[in-house]
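Q: What structure does this chain adopt?
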Amino acid sequence: MLRRGRRVAFAEGRLTDGAGQLLAVAQGTWHLEPHDPEVAAEEAARCVVLRGTRERLRVGKIVAVGRNYADHVREMGAPSSSPPVLFLKPPSAIVHDGGAVRIPPDAGAVHHEVELVAVLARSGRLIPEGQAIDHVLGFAVGLDMTLRDVQAAAKAKGEPWTIAKGFDTSAGVSEVALRGRWGTAPVSN
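A:
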């Protein structure tokens, strides 16, 4: 994650397999702006955009994984044996490459994490690990924005922290590179 100035964030990601073979690349740029109640979340943001065709696919839900790498577990003060945690973000959290992340007023500390986004092509349950990739349509790079002060207050009270993770425009997502069709060139802005 690079920050260009105070109000522009740029993220780039590469996914490789266990042998180091490049599977996908993606990049995106988002503008960080204060919340403006006059600006409504656009309906088009409730979708992901396929690289190349610009086809839009509706997003039903966003399932996110927290505490999924050791450095972040330590940073958050959780025990190293803590299992990953799943949480949801609403489709209204999506903001596309080049869009504006609208930070709510009086949000306190706002943190970001760069994420690998896997877009599923089909649903399933209890999928064997070896078959999981067959359910993936493609990959993108994303931003997971968090209102840390709001999250900490909710955690201290034992309450859910959805509002800290799921505010409108809290999930930046680049174009989706289709699995098996991305080539080796980076995704353009």
